[in-house]
Amino acid sequence: MSEDIRTSIGLRPVINVSGTMTSLGASIVVPEAIAAMSSILPQFVEINDLQRKASAVIARLTGGEAGFVTASCSAGISLAVAGAITGNNLLAIEKLPDVVPEKNEVLVQMGHVVSYGAPVDQAIRLAGGKVVLVGQATSTHRFHMEHAITEKTAAAVYVVSHHVVDYGLLNLKEFVEIAHARGVPVIVDAASEYDLKIFLEQGADVVLYSGHKFLGGPTSGIVAGKKELVRNAFLQNMGVGRGMKVGKESIFGVMAALEAWERRDHAGIRERETSYLNLWKQTLDGRPGVTALIEPDPTNNPLDRMRVIIDTEEAHITAWDLADALGGGSPPIIVRDHEVEHRYFYLDPCNLHPGQEKIVASRLAEELDKARASNEIIATPIENRSKRRFEGVLKWPD
Ligand SMILES: *Cc1c(COP(=O)(O)O)cnc(C)c1O
């Protein structure tokens, strides 16, 4: 058996039950994309022609008129906003992020201004956009948005994510209706969404996906939608998009991942993931202080996760100390801990190699047994966790 590439270069061989995380290397790239990337790497191609081919594949899968591949979904937000500001004015494209036409206001609902690792609003500002927040964190009504639109409004951005506030805001259809009534294009950040068609169907003008999340493509972003807006975003490759460029391998890799997506055994994958969740539930049910719940994805992706709720007194350990014990163990298991201060974390079954689900189950059992057997309750202050994280990154590369 060949050595794990990660151990051979001194990296920890992490098991990912966290989800599709940039910080962990996104997703398992599908074999079709790997093969496509190796086949094109030694060849020269005319990049704009390759992007034309990508456009056709993206159009077929998304139902949009055109599309192209860029560095990331975050890059896609910047490029789509830049395109909405400059149109096809090549001089304006070179002048960004200074904006000559001054039609650069971009509406976003306040409850959508989240961080996916960097702030949504920064991706807009990078493109010369002036962010106009609409409504309050947990409340946007039609009147907020109607009054926010001016003659300077270039676009409106809508974020679909488990990170956004999930009540009290305008839904996409209403958002689109209000924007379109005043001729404002709608750009949807659907980075981590499974349905490639629904947002354009609901009236979005441009939709953005990550190539490296559900699709299992290389690190990349997909821009799709109305031809003119997609073209104006594409033209930014001669401007702010230069620093967000992708090579032939990513363009061709995404095309292959999209074609593989059409043929993927989606039901079979779901079944496999369900079997992992059932195994973990069997492992956890009946343990003192542990509640294991199988819950659907909050944005309706066809995916369930396991919520593991920890009663500190009963389990003798906090949810975050358990998460840290798993992450620090051998092999390291990284759980989904965005909300761990609420005393639960999630296990995400969609980025596992077969067999790893058993390791996850036995490590959970091991750490819970150990905690239960301990006379002291393992409870470090939650504040130390994020402090540690930022102290760590500020020391990089040590
Ligand atoms: C992951 C994510 C992004 C960033 O996507 P990248 O392709 O990694 O840049 C943006 N928005 C949302 C909602 C995300 O989940």
From TrEMBL:
The keyword Transferase applies. Gene3D superfamilies: Type I PLP-dependent aspartate aminotransferase-like (Major domain). Keywords: Aminotransferase, Pyridoxal phosphate, Transferase. One of its GO terms (molecular function) is transaminase activity. InterPro entries: PyrdxlP-dep_Trfase (IPR015424), PyrdxlP-dep_Trfase_major (IPR015421), SelA-like (IPR018319). Coiled coil: none annotated. Its cofactor is pyridoxal 5'-phosphate. Belongs to the SelA family. This is Aminotransferase class V-fold PLP-dependent enzyme. It comes from Rhizobium mesosinicum.
